[in-house]
Amino acid sequence: MxxxxxxxxxxxxxxxxxxxLVCADVHCVLLDRDNTCVPQGTKQVPPEVKSWVERAxxxxxxxxxxxxxxxxxxxxxxxxEFGVLKIDHAMKPAPFALWRxxxxxxxxxxxxxxxxxxxxxDVLAGNLAGVSTILVRPQSVTDLFYTKLFRIAEHxxxxxxxxxxxxxxx
Length: 170
Known about the structure:
This protein has 170 residues and is α/β, with parallel strands linked by helices. The chain has helices at 18-23, 47-58, 72-82, 96-105, 119-129, 145-157; strands at residues 8-10, 28-31, 62-66, 85-87, 112-116, 132-136.
């Protein structure tokens, strides 16, 4: 598998099957914030995302929010709302924040999965860190100017990829 390929592709975070994660012996979910949990340009967590996080925690999964966002208060607010640990200023795709999160959570790489919406930050970081990755589609078509540039390249990387659950969103 290449560094830009996710382990799995799912249309949205709420469609990621928690039972499958538990059966795969995943103990920890490293969760991207912007456009994975919170639509870009808002501070509101959609109810279906909050419900997914609650169900994941109830299933025994430990969760750490890992965000490149430099607005620490926004990341902290989301982490508090979820009742999870957080790391902001993560500098993904560098894997260091993921390794730090795994140490804080007391989980080995083979028991973790990173879920995010960007190939060149989330998937690449997860693969460099040695954890499984799930790429979800972004919640919003609104992106920061530099993310728009990455999305153009992403389109080429994802050219023939099918996302599980896309048929449910049409």
